[in-house]
Structure formats: C-alpha cells, structure tokens
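Per reviewer request, we include the raw input and output of the structure prediction for the construct analysed in the revised manuscript.
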Amino acid sequence: MCGAKAGGPDASGVTAGETTIQGSVTRDGEPVTGYVRLLDATGEFTAEVPTSATGQFRFYAAEGSWTVRALVPGGTADRSVVAQRGGLTEVSIAV
C-alpha cells in the first residue's frame, strides 16, 4: 500500500467505483501487525488479509453489512460496518 494517512491507508490506490473497506489496527495508539478478517452479515468467513507494518488493511467487498475482525498477538476486536456500493468505508480498530 502507498503512503499512510490518519484513519487508514492512502485512498489513492482505490479504484473509483470499487466498494472498499479499509483501515488500521492499533494498540495504545501504536500500529499492530497481524491479520484482519472480513465476515459477512451471517458471520461467515469471507476473506483475510495481513496488516501492513503500519497496521493498515484493505478489502474490496460487495455493498452491505460486514464485520471486520482484527486478530493480533494478545487480542482480537470486531467492528461492524456498512459498505456502500462504490464507496470507501474507513475502519479504525483498537485492540
């Protein structure tokens, strides 16, 4: 991913019209590396990506309700999000 900005990865890498969920994972305000899972509205596993060295992640998804789950050493945390068609949804996860 390109350079970072507060709240998540640089949006310049996002293709216009793509439904995107992106963000960052932190602990005590510092980036955390690990994995982030995307679960659909029924809780079913859909995708998993590693975080970057700066705790950032990105998914391309369908519109709708999702759960974003951070899995990092020493903890997990979930955030519910609603992705809009063709929009960019930012998620900050503190574990």
